C-alpha cells in the first residue's frame, strides 16, 4: 500500500508549490479570467455526452484534496515570490497550477503531469522549476518510476519546458485528449527514475 504524503509544500528559489485550497477561489478565478485567451487552446474540455457537470471551485478543491489524501493525485498551485523575493512566502501570488494525476502504484508506479502559468509570468523559468520540483517529489518521496507529460504539437512554450528538463520524446498519440472542444493529437514525453540521477532540480541553471 502506498504511503500518502499530503499536504505537501515545495520551494526552489522564488518558485513555490503548495496545495490548491478552497480559499484560493477568488485568486484562481481571477487568473483564469485574465488568461482565458492565453489558455483556451490548451485547456481540457468535456467531450459530448460527458456527465461530469459543472461544480464550484470549493467543491473541486475539496474533491482534489480528498483524492490527494488517497494518493491518487497532487493538486498544486504555483506561487512566485518575484525576482527580489520580497514578502513572506505565504503571501506569494498564485501564478499558475500544476497537477500530478493518474498516480498508479503496484507494478506501474507512474503518473502524468500537467500545468498552466499566468501569461504575465511566462518566460521566467517558473514552469520548468515547478515541474522539476514536482517530478523529483514523485520519484524520490513517493517512489514512482515514470513521469509522463502530454503536449499538443502546437504548444511551443510547453515543448520548451520538457526540452529544458531533458524529457525523452516517445512519439505521438492521435486524438489523445479532449482539448479546446475537440480530440487533439499529443506528443508524449517521459522520464524514468533511473534516468534522472540526482533529479531535475539539479538540472536547472
UniProtKB/TrEMBL annotation:
Residues 15-194 form the N-acetyltransferase domain. GO terms for cellular component: cytoplasm. GO terms for molecular function: protein-N-terminal-alanine acetyltransferase activity. InterPro entries: Acyl_CoA_acyltransferase (IPR016181), GNAT_dom (IPR000182), N-acetyltransferase (IPR051531). Keywords: Acyltransferase, Transferase. PANTHER family: [RIBOSOMAL PROTEIN US5]-ALANINE N-ACETYLTRANSFERASE, GNAT FAMILY, PUTATIVE (AFU_ORTHOLOGUE AFUA_3G00765)-RELATED-RELATED. Belongs to the acetyltransferase family. RimJ subfamily. This is GCN5-related N-acetyltransferase. The lineage of its organism: Bacteria, Bacillati, Actinomycetota, Actinomycetes, Propionibacteriales.
